[in-house]
């Protein structure tokens, strides 16, 4: 049976990829940074191996006997050349055949994002690769921006009236599972979006309807955004990256939709409304 290693297995996307592979005739191994950490997002019976980008001693044992890897760049890592690419070389040396890499929309033409260097490295690695160039995750609203909505009933994102192409992480994971287990995906790049590009006023409207209370989009400027992020003790580097991404959205450059998700899954992608309904409990206010 084929063995598939999932990096970032405890995160938003990786944990969904583990779930999406359950029930398929493959052996799934979760790469985790701490073996003993209780993982809320991983099924208890998931096989685990310790793997840390930058700790080279963890590479060979993790890749031993692995046929395919789901590769995810942790958001904290920006130096792909020194921290991710050597791991790709170690995969090849250990006999891994194929890699599905979670990239980002536009990575092929934007050398500023770390995914660009990773894509280039994979192209020359001798590995069979598939790129999943993802749009903006709907789940950013239920994770990074959850407390804006939960505690303040607002969305504090400096994206003006620009439209954003969203994708549900569960659809991404379903496509990842397909590429890791199926045929015909070698040297392919898929641009994964849902069928909707929404403004944050529209996002606020959908959330208001689903949560049955008013969620506002106050069109915050960058200073207001930074103040909120500062209140929540977010790391400066992370806030800088978000500021740049939301500036792109404000300029109307983040709304590009494709049909790849529908074509690959053979069904309509999940909508933002469906996402909001499924995750509604995370925005419930804590009991008084
Ligand atoms: N957010 C978006 O809208 C969006 C859109 C397109 C693409 N992306 C890309 O998606 C990726 C983020 O995915 P995500 O949201 O699933 O991330 P996430 O939830 O933050 O999870 C990160 C994962 O990486 C692991 N990790 C952290 N440091 C590590 C290290 N040094 N070595 C090995 N593993 C490590 C974490 O493990 P621990 O739990 O042990 O720390 C965790 O499992 C990024 O590359 C991002 O650019 C995001």
Write the layout of secondary structure elements.
Elements: E1 2-6, H1 12-21, E2 26-32, E3 47-50, H2 59-63, E4 68-72, H3 80-83, H4 85-94, E5 98-104, H5 114-123, E6 128-134, E7 136-137, H6 146-152, E8 164-167, H7 169-181, E9 188-192, E10 197-198, H8 200-211, H9 222-231, H10 236-250, H11 260-265, H12 272-278
Parallel strand pairs: 1-2, 1-4, 2-3, 4-5, 5-6, 6-9, 7-8
Antiparallel strand pairs: 8-10
Helix pairs in contact: 1-7, 8-12
NADP nicotinamide-adenine-dinucleotide phosphate binds next to helix 1, strand 5 and strand 7.
Give an overview in words.
With 288 residues, the protein is α/β, with parallel strands linked by helices. It has two domains: 2-134, NAD(P)-binding Rossmann-like Domain (Rossmann fold, 3-Layer(aba) Sandwich); 146-163 and 195-256 and 264-283, UDP-galactose 4-epimerase, domain 1 (Alpha-Beta Complex). It is built from twelve helices and ten strands. A seven-stranded parallel beta sheet has the order 3-2-1-4-5-6-9, sandwiched between helices. Strand 1 (2-6), helix 1 (12-21) and strand 2 form a beta-alpha-beta unit. It is globular. It starts with a strand and ends in a 10-residue tail after the last helix.
């Amino acid at each position: 049976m084929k063995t598939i290693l999932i990096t970032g297995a405890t995160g938003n996307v990786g944990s969904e990829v583990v779930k999406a592979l359950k029930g398929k005739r493959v052996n799934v191994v979760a790469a985790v940074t701490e073996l003993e950490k209780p993982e809320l997002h991983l099924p208890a019976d998931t096989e685990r191996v310790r793997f840390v980008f930058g700790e080279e001693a963890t590479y060979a044992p993790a890749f031993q006997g692995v046929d395919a890897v789901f590769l995810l760049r942790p958001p904290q890592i920006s130096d792909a050349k020194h921290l991710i690419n050597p791991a790709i070389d170690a995969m090849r040396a250990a006999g891994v055949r194929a890699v599905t890499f979670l990239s980002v929309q536009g990575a092929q033409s934007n050398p500023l994002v770390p995914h660009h260097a990773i894509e280039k490295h994979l192209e020359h690695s001798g590995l069979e690769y598939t790129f999943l160039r993802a749009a903006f995750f709907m789940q950013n609203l239920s994770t990074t921006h959850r407390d804006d909505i939960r505690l303040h009933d607002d969305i504090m994102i400096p994206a003006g009236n620009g439209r954003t192409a969203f994708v549900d992480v569960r659809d991404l994971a379903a496509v990842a599972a397909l590429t890791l287990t199926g045929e015909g995906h070698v040297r392919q790049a898929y641009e994964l979006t849902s069928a909707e590009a929404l403004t944050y006023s529209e996002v606020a409207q959908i959330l208001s309807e689903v949560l049955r209370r008013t969620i506002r989009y106050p069109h915050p400027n960058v200073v207001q955004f930074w103040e909120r992020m500062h209140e929540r003790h977010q790391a400066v580097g992370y806030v800088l990256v978000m500021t740049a991404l939301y500036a792109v959205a404000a300029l109307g450059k983040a709304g590009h939709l494709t049909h790849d998700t529908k074509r690959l899954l053979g069904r309509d992608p999940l909508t933002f409304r469906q996402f909001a309904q499924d995750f509604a409990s995370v925005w419930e206010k804590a009991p008084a």
